[in-house]
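Need tokens for this chain, all 328 residues.
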Amino acid sequence: MLPWFENGKFPLYLAPMARFTDIVFRQMCKEQGADVMVTEFVQADALNRDDPKLWETVDFTEEQRPMGVQIFGSNPESMGRAARLLTDRLRPDFIDINFGCPADRVICMDAGSSMLRNPKKLGQVTSAVVNAVPETPVTVKIRTGWDDDTIVAKEVGHIVEGEGAQALAIHGRTKLQGYSGEANWPIIAEVAEELTIPVIGNGNIRSAEDVLRIREQTQCAGLMIGRAALGYPWIFREIKHTLEHGVVPPPPTIPERWENIIDYTRRLMARPFREQKHGDLRWMRPKFIALTKSMTGSRKIRGALGTVHQIEDLERIAKEHIEQYHCS
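Here are the structure tokens for all 328 residues:
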């Protein structure tokens, strides 16, 4: 068993989300209580071509362990070689295979959730990765199916378990749902009952109360939190405190949130990302919008963030917002 599941541990994963869960954001979530990290996904074929930008994407620190690297692709041989390359260079705690991404650019490669339409080939890819890195655990992430008429989570779960995957994360929506509608937790619960490997549930986890309910109603061994963490990385702290003490702790104050956002920005600016040009922060606007989405007055903040070019612009917006909305 993977060590982060041993002795009744119930790990909280930060879901990998392209263009958002960068190395600095992951560190912020780690400091707030996230247990297990997974990098943004990288295409196996591009990795095998040694695209240097991809090595920035999969970079991580020792503090972030246990740390997995997520890959996607449809060719078993290419996926195996990519897993071997990652293991030799980075020594991650596990390799994660993405069979769940619904994005068109991934589907057109016959990868991501497209693989759910071909469980046999999905099994071949899983087997190739497992055999390529026998010393490194392999885990898998899927959705419930392609659409409501082809729910294959159980079938795929048994396949990847049989091929040697050591854990399965299930996003409780179909490919056609995208990120709309409610997650299908009854299906996740059924898969968790049938498999012997740990099942990590994912979808519609917005609060500590959601976690308490899921733990009562399913046999999930852990949970994966995605979009809720983008706007509120403090969710991990709240869940941990609630599980331990039975009560939800007070949320961070507006000044505390801005302090974290600005610290995150400064740390990210210090990284050698190619998007950076002379401290220009326009490329980070989607990140700022996500991090302030749940704040009081977020609509006004969103408009102001459209003017951000430099760190001083962000600090000015923070100061004005704190003066307007922080009462104590």
